Amino acid sequence: MNTLSAIKAFLFLCFAVITNAKPVHLNEGKCVNRTVLGPTFDFMLLKEAALWSAMAYSEMPASCASKLIASAPTPVSFHVVNSTYLGIEIFAFLTTYHARNQIVLSFRGTQYYTQLVEELANAYHSQFTANTSLLVNHYFQNALATIYDHVRSLVAQAVAANPDYELFLTGHSLGAAMASLAALRFVYEGIVPPGKILQVTLGQPRVGIKAYAMDVECKIANAVRLTHYKDIVVHLPYENLNWYHHGEELWYLETMPDVNNTDKGHYTICETGEDSNCADKHDGSSLEDHIHYYTYKGKPLDLGEICNNILFHKHFNLTTL
């Protein structure tokens, strides 16, 4: 058995052993009109999501922003929030991006092999804090809980100061999962109106059961999951163990466009969360496709290392996972 096959077998065994699924009823009520990825949607927002997500892997997101984002926010407008969960740092930042009339909230993804092991060991269903009839991933929810109160306070302050601005939530991998959970909590708690949220995540694992996914689609008008070809993480935890993705999904083929131009690349849009025309077309066998989203100056954009490369010429490589 080769290394990749061994990793996949290990992942399946972990999720099969620790998953304890229970059926729940879907919430009833009026849903928002979903307007994302229409003919007028600005695809540069997706590329900017990749850059904001990359900054969350840096200890100095403001400095990295000045190198990557046009008309970047001033450093004073960046607010870093961090804590620890099971001995590993959980990190997010918030900034006000006036060039886009946005409040940007970005969560850091998985950093270390030991953290991945903890995610696997704690990947069972827990009641969603904002609605206990919904079941979500225990690790993802508990990781978010370590910083949520601080993040919630910052978001509330930023929304009060900029009531016409949109809240742009993003993150990669674990960060994507926390962005999904945070967005739905903000809606339940009345922090941000559903129509004022744009949620764009990259390489997002399945966060909850189907009822959770349907609730995201019902309550958040603009939620997009970017997936890349055979990214292995977007297939975890496994659907047959009662985990489910929310829509919409924008699935890129193997080669993704550069973040610095307007090329949209080759992609497929799927309105529902589990569609065999998108990532579900493949079994998900590539760690490389999870690490790299878009390209930067002609090279695959490694979300975990680009800021360190730019600022310090150091390499933080997610391939060590």
Describe the structure.
With 321 residues, the protein is an alpha/beta fold. Helices cover 33% and strands 22% of the residues. β4 (125-128) and β5 (131-137) form a beta hairpin. The radius of gyration is 18 Å and the shape is globular.
Question: What is the structure about, briefly put?
Answer:
The protein is α/β, with parallel strands linked by helices and 321 residues long. Helix content is 33%, strand content 22%. The strands form three sheets. An eight-stranded mixed β-sheet has the order 1-2-3-6-7-8-9-10, sandwiched between helices. A two-stranded antiparallel ribbon has the order 4-5.
Using brief descriptors, characterize the structure shown.
single chain, 321 residues, alpha/beta, eight-stranded mixed sheet, two-stranded antiparallel sheet, disordered N terminus
Shape: globular
Could you describe the largest sheet, including whether it forms a barrel? 8 strands, mixed
Low-confidence stretches: 1-28, 314-321
Class of secondary structure makeup: alpha/beta
Tell me the series of helices and strands, N- to C-terminal.
HHHEEEHEEHEHEHEEEHEEH
Number of beta-strand segments: 12
Distance between the termini: 19 Å
Fraction of residues in helix: 25-40%
**Alpha carbon gyration radius:** 18 Å
Strand order of the largest sheet: 1-2-3-6-7-8-9-10
Q: Give the integer mean of the pLDDT values.
A: 87
Hey, roughly how much beta strand do the residues contain? Answer: 15-25%
Task: Supply the number of helical segments.
Answer: 9
